[in-house]
TrEMBL record:
GO terms for cellular component: endoplasmic reticulum lumen. It comes from Daphnia magna. Catalyzes the post-translational formation of 4-hydroxyproline in -Xaa-Pro-Gly- sequences in collagens and other proteins. Keywords: Dioxygenase, Endoplasmic reticulum, Glycoprotein, Iron, Metal-binding, Oxidoreductase, Vitamin C. This is procollagen-proline 4-dioxygenase.
Amino acid sequence: MVDYAIRQIVYVTMLIIQVSGDMHSASADLASIFQMEQQVNNVLSELVSQTETKLEIIRQYLKEYEQSVINETMDDKNEFMERLAGNPIHAYRLMKRLYFDWQLIEKEIKTDNWQSTLIKLEEVRNNEKFPKEEDFLGATSALVRLQDTYELNITELVRGNLRGRQTHAELTALDCLFMGKHAFDEGAYARAVEWLEESYILAGLENNQTIRQDHIMEVIQQAIDKHDEALHEAQQRMAVLSDTKSFRLPLKEKPAVLQRNEMIRSRKYDKDDAAKFNALCRGESLLSEEILGQLKCWYETHKEPYLFLMPIKIEQNSIRPAIYTFHDVLNDLEIETIKELATPLLARAKVLAKQAGSKTTVSNVRTSKTAWLEDELHPMLHRISQRIALVTGLKVNSSFDEAEILQVANYGIGGHYSPHHDYLMKGKTDEELGKMNARELATGDRIATFMFYLNDVERGGSTAFPRAGVAVKPVKGGAAFWYNLKRNGQGDPDTLHGACPVLLGHKWVSNKWIRETAQSFNRPCLLDPDE
C-alpha cells in the first residue's frame, strides 16, 4: 500500500495531462512557477516530517524493547523468557509497551497522510500554469539555442558559468543525457554527441549517482554512428549541414571537442545573416573603425518647448540604415505601470503565418509573450504616445490609425526573435495583399519602429541588425528607433533585425509601430528615387 501511494505521489507530481503549454516563453510566468514549486516543496516537506514522526515513534518502541532485554540474554529461550517474566520492572514495561505504547503506534500507522498529500499535489498540478511537455521541451531547446548563439563552453555551462558569470545552478549527468537525447531527436547530432560526452564525464564525477556511465556510452556510440552516417549522406548530395547538426569530419576520425574548437576559430561571416546575428549577440564588432569614428551622440529639442528643459539624448548606432537609441525616455513609474497593465494580458507571441489564408500562428522563431495596450486603458499611455510623436516628429495616434496600439513583450528562457523585417506588405504579391484587411491596407505599412526597453538585461537580449552590423543593448528607460521603409516607400532590407536570446535575467520591451499613410507630410519623398 505504501509503495502504491509513493508511486501515486510521483505520478501526480510529474504527470502532464495538457498538450498545450507555453510557460517557458515569458519570465513573468517563470517567476510564478518557481512560487508554485515552493508549494510542492512545502507539501512534500510536510509529508516527510509526518513520516519521520511515525518512524521515530516506532524506533523508540524498538529501542526500549532492546534496552529491556539486552542484559538478560541467555542461551535457553524458555529460561530467558521466564527470567523476564519474573522481573516486576520488566513486567511493568512489557504491559506499558503493549498497552500504552502500542496504542500510539497503531494510531500513527492507521493515520493516512498519503491521501491528503495527493489531494494537495493535485490542487497544485491543476493550476493552468503548471508546466506541460511543451515547456520542458522549450526549456531544453532554449539551452541549445543559447549554446549555439553564444558559443558557450559546454563544460562551463553545465557548471553554471554563463559567459563569465558564475551562478549556483548546475546540471547533472542525467540532465546532460536528457539534453543529448533531445538534440538527437531534433537531428542535431553534433550537439547531441557533445552533451552526451559531457554526461559521461559528469557521471564519473558523480560516481554514477544519477546515471551509469556504461548506459551513456551506448547512447554516445549511437549518436556518433548517426552523425557520421548523416554527414556521409550530405556529402554524397553535395549538401551543407549546419554546425549544430554536423561537424566537418566524421567523429570516428576526429573527436567532437577538437572539431568544435576548430570551427569556432575558423568561422567566417561573409553574407551569412545568421552568423552575423550570432556574432553581434556575442558582442563582437562588425563595423570598421572608419564608420565607428563617424557615429556620434547629441542632445535634440526639435525646437519643441516641451523638450527645452529635457532635451532628447540621442545615440547614433548606425548611419545607413539610420538606427538610434533615445535614452531616458521612460521613468521607473511609467515602466512599472506598463508592466502591471500588460502582465494579466500576456499571451504567447504569434507571427504572420506562411500558409495562404492564415493570419498569425505560434512559431519557434519567436519565444515570448505579448500584450496589446490601447491608449484609453490608462492616461499615462496617451502621454507616452505624445512623447513618441515629439521625439520622432511623426504622427502616432492609434485612434486615427496613425500607429498601432502599444505592444508589450516579455521574454522567458532563452527568449529570442529570429531576424526578420517589421514591414508587413512590401514584397507581397497582389494575391497576398488582397487577403489583408482593407483598413490595414489603408493605413499603409510599418514605416518606423519605436522600441522601449523596460529593464536592463544581465546577459544577452540585445537587438541585433546583421546587415547593418550593429546591436543595440537594452538600457532601462531607453528606446531604439529606426525606419523600416525608405523615403520612396520601399522596404529597407538592411533593417533586418532580431532579438538576441536572453542568456541571464529577463527582458521586457514595448513596441510602437508607426504606420505609413499618415506620415506623407512628416517624411516626404526625396528627389533621389532610390532613397
